[in-house]
Design a protein that fits this description.
Length: about 450
């Protein structure tokens, strides 16, 4: 018998067999057994007995969602099996509709930029202050939100990210107060903050819509997410959620959300509080982002170092997997899965690699954003070609150019690249020989080389 190859399964099985020390997502880190037991037997579809995620309600799914809504003090909660991306699209569709305007955090996830295009929204970007000492973008300021809303009275939706990838939280109650004073709704991408309400963080309660990825920081299966809302009915959430979600949502993912909430309440909160203590200790010992002039996620460890890429690679060679690295940082997601023993292993590795003695690499702030010359929708659906980044001055970007740092788009879809942006990208090590981007194709340009120039003629 000839066996066909199973490359993905074999690769994952081999990696899992090495028992890596994981400080990335999903939040179970491969060690907490919170997935539903008897998974195959529970892998149902809509049968008349199992309920319907997007149906009229009154079933076990709605009862499980209601427990989440009650715990996080929201009117309603919708389970998402398409990750926070599904929630971002659903939330913006409900709040901003189609063809309107939105005040958008410049540091938003690409799903928000895709929503701009899908809904044909006009973005007015909220810029974050640069924290020179930390080398990252800071929190969204309420004053910046007020300035934008006062200047653009047509905006009725504000969308920001909190916490950021680096763990920085914005003052959501203050921002919500500004939004509501101008008759606008506040939507928060809290993809990295699903654990925070279990640690008595109350900031999300001030928002109108919050999207959270349970799989990022809670011990839930990949793609498990939640959409919380005030002043929106379950019927509204289901209607728009079904537009962006599969008509065959995974019952395993939904059951996992139910099990995870129960686990966190029974045992996870205690373990999370221990993780908070461990992270605080590591922050004191190693150069790291620390709470002070900004509020931080208490479980996220963002180290500052001389070369984040080199440190991350050195850790991976020791079978330790961080979440993300950039020029001057390495980010670790510590969750309720990480007891003192796992943290001590990480600590010894950082000590042996000399992180305590490293001076953080300077991370310059990004230049002012380029001029928007094309609507996000036009940029997404325009014909495009691949071009060397070094030769893209004057071109219109078809997508985001968002290296870390700063973790926010240096260039957003529909913006024209200028020389200062190319200089900055080169300065932070992104614009290397051979780096390519996709730019809008107008049918007249000549390509650099055959191997780097093609156009994908998509419908306009």
């Amino acid at each position: 018998m000839v066996f066909m190859p199973t490359p993905l399964y074999d690769s994952l099985k081999n990696l899992a067999g090495q028992n890596p020390l994981r400080f990335d997502m999903p939040g179970h880190h491969g060690v907490l057994q919170t997935a539903p037991l008897g998974a195959l037997a529970l892998d149902f579809t809509e049968t008349g007995y199992t309920g319907d995620l997007f149906g009229p309600g009154g079933d076990a799914i709605e009862a499980a969602e209601a427990l989440w809504a009650e715990r996080f003090d929201f009117d309603s909660c919708l389970f998402l099996t398409g990750g926070s991306t599904q929630g971002i699209h659903t939330g913006l569709a409900l709040l901003a509709g189609a063809g309107g305007a939105v005040a958008l955090d410049r540091g938003s996830h690409r799903s928000a930029y895709h929503a701009l295009a899908l809904l044909d929204l006009t973005p007015h970007y909220l810029l974050r202050p640069w924290l020179d000492q930390e080398g990252v973008a800071g929190p969204i300021r309420p004053e910046a939100v007020e300035e934008t809303l006062a200047k653009h009275l047509e905006i009725k939706t504000v969308c920001i990210t909190s916490p950021t990838y680096y763990g920085i939280l914005s003052d959501l109650p203050a921002i919500a107060q500004v939004c509501h004073a101008y008759g606008a709704k506040l939507m928060v991408d809290g993809a990295h903050g699903a654990h925070l309400p279990f640690l008595d963080y109350e900031g999300y309660r001030a928002a109108d819509v919050v999207v959270m990825s349970a799989h990022k920081t809670l011990p839930a299966l990949g793609q498990s997410a939640l959409l919380f809302a005030n002043s929106l009915t379950m019927a509204e959430l289901r209607r728009m959620g079904s537009v962006y979600g599969s008509s065959s949502p995974s019952y395993l993912l939904m059951a996992g959300l139910d099990v995870v909430r129960d686990y966190i309440e029974r045992e996870g909160i205690r373990r999370y509080k221990e993780t908070v203590r461990q992270v605080a200790r590591l922050r004191r010992r190693f150069p790291a982002l620390r709470p002070g002039k900004v509020e931080l996620d208490p479980t996220r460890l963002t180290l500052q170092c001389a070369d984040g890429f080199a440190l991350a690679e050195a850790l991976r060679r020791r079978n330790i997997f961080p979440e993300m690295a950039d020029r001057g940082h390495v980010v670790f997601l510590l969750t309720c899965a990480d007891g003192p023993g796992r943290v001590e292993t990480l600590e010894r590795a950082l000590e042996e690699l000399g992180v305590e003695r490293q001076a953080p690499a300077p991370c310059p702030p990004p230049p002012a954003p380029p001029k928007q010359v094309m609507r996000p929708r036009q940029a997404l659906f325009a014909s495009r070609r691949t071009l060397l980044l070094s030769r893209s001055e004057g071109q219109v970007s078809a997508g985001q150019i968002a290296p870390y740092p700063p973790g926010v788009p240096v260039v957003a879809p529909g913006e024209r690249l200028e020389k200062k942006h190319l200089v900055y990208l080169k300065e932070i090590g992104y614009n290397k020989n051979g780096t390519t981007i996709e730019v809008v194709y107008n049918g007249t340009e000549k390509g650099d080389h055959d191997e780097t120039d093609h156009c994908d003629r998509q419908p306009r």
